[in-house]
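Reviewer 2 asked us to include a model.

Predict the structure of this chain.
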Amino acid sequence: MDFLEFVQKNEITLLDGAMGTELKKRDVMGNFKNNIENREIVKDIHKSYLKAGSDAIITNTFSMNRLYLKDKSKDYDLDLINKAGVKLAKEVVGPNQFVLGDISSTGKLLKPYGEYEEEQFIEIFQEKARILADEGVDAFIIETMVDLREAVTALKACKSVADLPVIVSLSYNTIDKGGRTVMGNSAAEAAQKLQKEDADIIGTNCGSLDPKEMAEIVKVLKDNTDLPIMVEPNAGQPKLKGEETVYDMEPDVFKEGIMACIKAGAEIVGGCCGTTPQHIKELSKEIGKD
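Predicted model (structure tokens):
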């Protein structure tokens, strides 16, 4: 059974929670070589989510594209970092558990706001998607996108290199006017455009909305597409404590917000920044995965 078949046959598919904030707890957040230098830490985080009930885990390859890595260091190996990310995830999944290849923004802007053409972004995303596909991911997840145009370039890239399901998820900062990203894209616009461009699953993650507010975005997406809808909220609004950004929504409150998203039409659920294996475990119990 492939990932899309699994989603279609199950009422709810449960993804994992945050990777970045879990790495931060272990004092290795921000190390783009974690998949090589801290392999057991990454694997342990993956294992903890699978133990909590996740049907699928997301590779630790979030921003590992050429443009992002070039800004971090001259000493990087794009191929090695992404291959290692897939390998670590594949080493811990069992039967009927899936590995989603994580792709996110370049960190740059398309013209006229930036210096890049859409064709350049497509080439950059193709380069990464090809590595993930060759290493055996079950699907791609394009997430935390704030520019619909960039999301579409990533989608086109994935579709051009492999016959795998593609999830495309944008981050919304407001529920006003039908939900808007920081670049001004509406949830309705995103749903219609992504379906037209042959996305297999669409959704929303991260951003500035709490889980219950995300249910409002899910409603808009549901009204504008017949594709499955994914939602991965943060563990509440980010708060600044001293110089540290924290997410302190308790698992039971997070669970209530996710259930509102499910009621609104979400079929694939998980967590983003600040969510932990305990958040996923509480959700797993609620939806009957545990």
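Residues 3-286 form a domain with the TIM Barrel fold (CATH 3.20.20.330). The first strand starts at residue 13 and ends at 14. We have added this to the supplementary material.
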